[in-house]
Amino acid sequence: MEGLMPAESLVEHVTGQLLRLCRVTGTDAAEPARLVADLLGEAGRRALAAGPAWSSDVADDHSPVEFSVAFDRGGPPALRLLAEAAVADPAVPADLTPALAFLHRQAGRHRLDLARLEQVRDLFTTDRPQGLFGMWHSLILRDVPEFKVYLNPEIHGVARSGPLVREALGRLGAGPAYRGVRERALRPADRLTFFALDLTDCDTARIKLYVSQHDAGLDDVARAAAVVPGVDPAEVTAFCELATGSAGPYDRRPIIASYTFAPGAAAPIGYSVYVPIRSYVADDREAHDRAGALLVRHGFDPGALEAAVSAVSRRPLGDGAGLIAHVSLRVGPPRPGLSVYLSSEAYSVGAPQPLRIPAAS
Ligand code: TRP
Questions:
Q1: Is the pTM of this model over 0.85?
Q2: What is the pLDDT of residue 122?
């Protein structure tokens, strides 16, 4: 029968998942589908069987798309998409050109405010970009989609990320708040992984810095959270313990923290913690059960997670690890809550990890 059915393409695979997820969250799917088609462009038409056109770091299997469901206090769950616009030259994945072209195509239609991005863009631009990405997009798929961009602080190399972030936050009016973070929270092993800007509505638009806390213990996790006024470090450490099933140290994929800055504020105004749960489970069944328990603990309906997981994949959860890639806890404004990140698994499924139980001898 070969040849009768055209091979499934990347954009077909992702759009199918997106349409089913939109049904779960009650989102109109027309605009989300258009955005995905624009992001992937020509690369979207490539057959899945041909493998990824470039090694996107958005997901472990190099799918350039990852979904997430954000559970907020006082509102229905929101569907979000993290995506990388198709890169032009797989040898230079950190080239910003395709990502900026996507933004400029969407700017008018979605009234994006690019002013802040323009204030710092030169810092993240180089002829010889380093690292695994230059710019990623986050789309919150509400009735009017909200856009965010992630820039790479390590684009000039890891060693220059500190001064780069300091300059960028200084230009945006967050210098004093960042000084507190630097002096009281950052550890030598930490990496500055993402610098993110909301592109909508400049008054409430946030500036975020993501820190990868390599080999952190619970004391490090608590210290990083404690610099943000109003954040209870014990809430953050409890979340990490429950999500990983371990009291640390977290020596597999790192826990990631994010600080939210507002121009002129003397301290960060928000904090989130992201746990790469896939590195701390045997398989997705375990990840699913832990994520469900966390939702219940924080007062959310785990039914929506169930439905979202089925919208993305029908495979038995025990057959792989990584469909549920991260879980995160947002503390403080503007929207406290919990998010669960779901891999597209367009190209492959991560193998279940054998339980690390000492062998009986
Ligand atoms: N795949 C990368 C990682 O796992 C980047 C990434 C994708 C990420 N989605 C994320 C990081 C959500 C933190 C939270 O690190």
A1: yes
A2: 97
